[in-house]
Amino acid sequence: MRTRHLLIVYHTQSGNTGRLAEAAWRGATDDEVTDVEVRMIRASDAGPDDLLWADALLLGTPENFGYMSGGMKDFLDRTFYPVEGKIQSLPYAIFISAGNDGTGAIRAIHRIANGYPFSEVQEPIVAKGPPTEEHLARCRELGMALAVGLEARIF
Ligand SMILES: Cc1cc2nc3c(=O)[nH]c(=O)nc-3n(C[C@H](O)[C@H](O)[C@H](O)COP(=O)(O)O)c2cc1C
Question: Average of pLDDT values for 15-29?
């Protein structure tokens, strides 16, 4: 059986979401996970080929103006038609960095994810304010949970 692939796509402006993404990366690449390849890419550098490569997806974005960031929206805008009909139901999860509760960003991603389609396999993580040790630990767990789930063929 081939190695499974986890894609982490994130956008960050002032670095907070980037720190969450790095924590997710650390969890996904933990020594306990042996048969999963992890690719972490900034949203501006990610494209349809990355989505077609992926067996599961982590999306990380700040909340900007009550929505996902423009960089994350641009990634979704650019990839939707090229992957349409080519992905079945990609397991995914979200992490958000926000000054407040992040619900606008989550709602926006949920709506778009239905169209791809992506299917959510973990609750979204919202890190309010600069990432704390607890936020980083939760993102690390999230990365590991997706990687372990892939390895165990749970999804
Ligand atoms: C242009 C702009 C708009 C923002 N809008 C929101 C918002 O609507 N809701 C919110 O909770 N935080 C908002 N924030 C705060 C960011 O979500 C927060 O600072 C986040 O940690 C930034 O993540 P980053 O460092 O990865 O860019 C906004 C920040 C910027 C720069």
Answer: 98
Ligand 1 neighbour 132 (Cβ under 6 A): no
Under the banding of pLDDT at 50, 70 and 90, the label for residue 1 is: confident
In this prediction the pTM is: 0.98
Instruction: Report CA(25)–ligand 1 centroid distance (Å).
Output: 22
Most ligand 1 atoms within 8 A of CB, residue of 42, 59, 63 to mutate: 63
- For ligand 1, say whether the CB of 63 is within 6 Å of any of its atoms: yes
Q: CA angle, corner 28, sides to 44 and 83, nearest 5?
A: 40
Task: Give distance in angstroms: CA of 76 to centre of ligand 1.
Answer: 19
Question: Domain ranges in the chain?
Answer: 4-151
| Whole-number pLDDT of residue 111 | 97
Residue 5 in contact with residue 37, Cβ under 8 Å?
yes
Spatial neighbors of 145 by CB under 8 A, at least 6 apart, are 27, 93, 122
Question: In degrees rounded to 5, what are phi and psi of residue 86?
Answer: -105, -15
For 4-151, CATH number out of 3.40.50.150, 3.30.420.40, 3.40.50.360, 2.40.110.20 equals 3.40.50.360
Q: In angstroms, what is the span from residue 98 Cα to ligand 1's centroid?
A: 5
